[in-house]
Amino acid sequence: MNNQSKNTVLIKTEAKRLGFMSCGISKAGFLEEEAPRLENWLNQNMQGEMGYMQNHFDKRLDPTKLVEDSKSVISLLLNYFPAETQNEKSYKISKYAYGTDYHFVIKDKLKQLLTFIQTEIGEVHGRAFVDSAPVLDKAWAVKSGLGWMGKHSNVLTKQVGSFYFIAELIVDLELEYDMPVTDHCGSCTACIDACPTQAIVAPYVVDGSKCISYLTIELKNSIPSGFSGMMDDWIFGCDVCQDVCPWNRFSESHKEPLFQPNPKLLSMSKKEWEEVSEEVFQELFKKSAVKRTKYSGLKRNIEFIKGK
Questions:
Q1: Which segments constitute the 4Fe-4S ferredoxin-type domain (predicted)?
Q2: Which among 14, 45, 196, 215 is placed 20 to 30 Å from 228, CA to CA?
Q3: Mind listing the domains of the chain with CATH numbers?
Q4: What is the model's pTM?
Q5: Rounded distance, CA 94 to CA 92, Å?
């Protein structure tokens, strides 16, 4: 076994020990296939008010511009599928936001993995990325064989579906690279048919400006009246396209204690959501991704759904 093979096995074994569901590795370089796709998507203004998507176009497509002399992109998946979900008659928040904000949880695990690499292998430089820098997470996960891009534009895996976070370590270390897997969506259009706002405008293309996740989290202005009656009671994010996907029948609940939800969150009624005070909001979502929309944003979302 040569050094590259040995180091690759070492890294993947440690990733598993840290709780990652899977780890795939691809060669750092320019994402040729993604470049025209991203450009086209931006030209059609499908990013809505997410202006940051237009920034750092070159870095978004080439990790060697983010991490000097980088050789490998280590992609990691972390399961967040919950054992229990919210009261069915309540307002809904995306399952990924039930527990502690994933940015904190994953960043900590990535730092541990990088420290392990530096301790066991030697002087390796790298950076950790969790959905907060210009990195095309899904493209790298696909490239490194962790799954294929589903028609809803989420990465899908035969064994576990799509309820997982994607993160990366970009390092200046040569490793063994994985091969992409084949697409297994076939003729299924469940996600396209079920999207409440018809945001999946074509297979593999989501108009971000129509997506409920965008409308309830990213959009800072008022939600356009055209979406009235279409929000399906989602007040933070939306899981519809994932919930209807046949591959998610294989989802198994996560084992990450920090992703356990506040029990109060699961049992809340619509009336309790409508009466949430700023104090209760701060306490309920102390370390949660829901803070992203702020108290005022959550109230706006609830009022829009109520038709006020």
A1: 173-205
A2: 45
A3: 3-83+94-171 (3.40.109), 190-252+260-306 (no CATH)
A4: 0.93
A5: 7
Angle between the N-to-C axes of helices 102-120 and 3-17, in degrees from 0 to 180, rounded to the nearest 10: 140
Q: Which residues of 215-239 are buried (b: 16+ CB within 10 A; e: fewer)?
A: bbbbbeeebeeeeeebbebbbbbbb
Instruction: Detail the residues annotated as belonging to a binding site for tRNA.
Output: 220
131 is catalytic: yes
Give the span between the Cα atoms of 235 and 303, in whole angstroms. 10
Q: CA angle at residue 7 from 21 to 110, to 5 degrees?
A: 45
DSSP string, 232-260: TTEEE---HHHHT-GGGGG------GGGP
Active-site pick, 58, 69, 131, 193: 131
The DSSP string of 4-41 is HHHHHHHHHHHHHHTT-SEEEEEE-S--TTHHHHHHHH
Are the C-beta atoms of residues 246 and 190 closer than 8 Å to each other?
Answer: yes
Specify binding-site residues for [4Fe-4S] cluster.
185, 188, 191, 195, 211, 238, 241, 245
